[in-house]
Write a structure and sequence with these properties.
This protein is an alpha+beta fold. It contains 5 helices and 4 strands. A 4-stranded mixed beta sheet has the order 1-2-3-4, with helices on both faces.
Amino acid sequence: MNYIYYNKNLTEKAKENRMNPTVPEKIMWKILRGKQLGDYKFIRQKPIDNFIIDFYCSELLLAIEIDGDSHAFQDDYDAFRTKKLNAFGIKVIRYSNSEIIVSIDGVYEDLKNKINKMISIISPPDKGDILGLV
């Protein structure tokens, strides 16, 4: 795994964010923490480049972003962030606050399917359901 640059000035802000998660972040963390999702480790509020990623799995090079109300007015910025993260080889998956609050089970199923698809691209096809969660 190659080192991915991050702005060290964001470390303190990331720590503050971890200490004060939003409600959707708390809900999402319940399904990501403790390697509950296919034995993959996710961390919260990970500085990468000049951004702080809501949830990140280094093994999968996967960023999960939760878009709050403010994101409705920053499509260009979100697209820029995604493009920059993609340049590092990081795939970005986005969910809205309302998706998480209203349908965490649907978000969980969607995320599980997307991870299975990512893994199937790099794993032999005879492995079947890699996460064992289908």
